[in-house]
Amino acid sequence: MDCGQLDDIVVKLSELRRQNRVGYVVPIVFVDDSLGPPVLPHVMTRQDFELARTKIPDAGKLIEKWYTLDAQKNHYELRNEMMFETTFETQEADEKLWHNEKVQLQITLMKVFDSISLRNGYIEQVFQQEIHNKIIINSELAKRSVWIMKNYDTDLGHKCKSTATESKKRLEQISKQLKIELPETNIIFYEDANTDEFIKKIESVLLSIVESVIKEREKQEPAYGTDALLLEELRIQAWFGHNTSKQAVRRDEAMERVKKYLMNVNAGYPLVLYGPPGSGKTTVVASVAKHSHLWNQDAAVVVRFANASAYSSSLEQTLNSLVVQLNLLDSGKCTWFKHNVQSYSDQIIRLLGSIGAKRPITLIIDGIDRFKNDDVNWIPQSLPNNVKFVISATEPSVHLNRLQQTIKSVDSFIRIANMTDEQIDSMLSASIIRPIGSGGGETLKNNSKTVTAKTPLELQVNTMCSKMRNSKQPPSSENWVETIFDNVESLLGKDKVSTAISHICSTRYGLLDSEVVELLSMEKEFLTSDQTTATSLSSAGFFWSAFNELLSSFLYWFKTDRYATIRWKNTVIAEAAARRYGATDRRVKSKILSYFNSQV
C-alpha cells in the first residue's frame, strides 16, 4: 500500500511499539534471503567517518551529504530523506536519486571495511541498530518474538556469487546474534514454507507463547480484599497520567502557584485550574499529580482524569470510584453507597475529614466540564484540615461559571493562559523534531512561524507540520485543527481518512483495532484489485498503522478492564473531527450496528 512519504518498515515498527503499550505483543519477523533496500548505519563514529572519507576520496562528498555531525554526542548521524528539499513535481525523481546514492554509499562502506573483522563489525553494528534495539533489547518482548529464516545454505544457487556471499554473511550474523539472545525454539529455519511440518512448527511455537502469557496474566490477577474494578481503574488512571505528564509544556508559574497552595496549611479552599481549550490544563494537572508526592511525601494523592476510562466517563461513575477508594484509605474496607451525586457528595466530605485527621490528602480531578452532568455542588467550598482539592475546567463552560458563583475565595482560581511569544519562540528554537516515518538519523530545529502558536495544542500541530515534507501551514489562527486533517488527507488520501475518522467519531468509547481494520476493509476505498478479503484486510491494516503514526500526538489508548480502543486525546480535536466528517456518521453508525449484530 502506498502511504506517501511513510516508510512501511518504520510504520510497522511504530505499530509494534503502539501495541506494546497496552497488551502482549508477539512479533513475528520474517528474515528474507535477499539483500533488500540499502542498509546504512544510523550512527557512525568520528573515526569511521574519517576512515571512509579518506580511504575512498571519490565518495567523500556522498558521505558528507548523508551523514551530519552531532557535536553534542560527538558522532555522525545518518540524514533522513525528509531533510532534503523537493517539490511535488520532482519528488519521484529525487527519491530515485536518493535511493541510488544510498546504494552507492552502502557499496562504499563495504569497500572501506574490507577486512573480515571490520566487515563483520560493520554488519553487526547495522543489525543492532536496525533490529536489535527495537526488539531484542526488550527482554520481555524478546521472549515472545518469533524469527522465521530461510535456510540460506540450500537456496542461494540462483544468485550471483557476490550477492550470495553477501546474503550468507548477513544471515549468519543475524542467526548468531539471535541464538545468543533468544530461546532456541523461537528461531525457525525452513526450506519450503508450504510444508505441513513448517506450518505445524509455527503453530506449536505460537501456542506455547500464548499459553505462557495467559499463565503469567493469571498470576497477576488475584487481588484479595480489594475491589478488582477499583484496582483496574487506578491502573488506567496512573497510566494515563504518566503518559500525559511526559508531554507537559513548561508552565512554571502555574506549577509554582499550585505547589504553594498544596504546601499552605492554611489554604482551606479548593483550587480551580481553568483555561481555553488546548491550553494544556490536563498536562499541568498530570504534572501536579506527579510532583505532589515530592512536595508532600506524607500525603495520600487521589487522582481522576475525566473520560480517561469507562469508569470516569460520567460524574456518577467517577464519584463512585472516588468514594470506594477514599473509604478504602480511611477504613481499609470496600463499601458501596447509594448511586447518586448527593449521596457521594456527603460521603466525600465525611471521608476527607476522617482521612485528614490522620494524614494529609490531596484530591485531584481533571476536566469536570467533560461530564454531561453539570452539577458542581458536590465540590465543598471549604475543606477540613490536611485536605487539598484541585480541579480543572475549560473556559468557557457551564461548570466553570457555576464554580465561580459558588466558590468565593479569589485565591481559588488559576487561569492557564495562552503562551507568550517569548515562551513560543523559546520552545520552537529548542524543539527537536524527528521526521514522521523516519527510521532515525538526523533531527532538525523547528523554526516555522508562519502563524504563531499560542497554546500547547497549536504547538503540537506546528510540530506535526514541521515533520512532514510539503505540509500545509494554517492560513490563520482559527485553522489550527483543520490543518491536522488537511495534511493527513494529503498523505493518506482524503476518502480513506474521512472513512477512518468517521468510524472513530461514530462510537462513544471507540473501537478495537481489530474491529476498525475489519470495518475499513469492507469500504470501497480499501478494496483491492483482486477483491480478496485477505488483501483488503492487509491494506486496511497498514493504513490504520500509518494513520496512527501520523496522528500519534492526538490519539490515545482508551482502556477498560479488558480492552483498549483508540480515541481522540483532546476534546477540541474530537469536536472538529465530528463537524468535518459528520456527514457520513449516519451511514457509518448503521454499518457498525449491523457489524456488531452479526457478531452476536
Structural summary, described in words:
This protein is α/β, with parallel strands linked by helices. The protein has 4 domains: 19-217, no CATH class; 234-415, Rossmann fold; 421-488, no CATH class; 493-599. It is 52% helix and 11% strand. The chain is built from 22 helices and 15 strands. The strands form 5 sheets. Strands 8-9-10-7-11 form a 5-stranded parallel β-sheet, with helices on both faces. The longest helix is centred in the middle third of the chain and has 25 residues, at 196-220. The two termini are 32 Å apart. The relative contact order is 0.09.
Key structural traits:
single chain; 600 residues; Rossmann fold; 5-stranded parallel sheet; 3-stranded parallel sheet; 15 strands; 11% strand
Q: Which helices and strands occur, and which strands form pairs?
A:
Blueprint (H helix, E strand, L loop, with lengths): L7 H13 L7 E4 L11 E3 H10 L4 H7 E4 L4 E4 L12 H22 L3 H21 L2 H5 L2 E5 L10 H21 L5 E4 L5 H25 L7 H18 L6 H12 L7 E5 L5 H15 L4 E6 L9 H17 L9 H16 L4 E6 L20 E8 L3 H9 L6 E3 L5 H10 L1 E2 L10 E2 L10 H11 L13 H13 L1 H12 L7 H9 L11 H18 L4 E5 L4 E5 L2 H11 L3 H15 L1
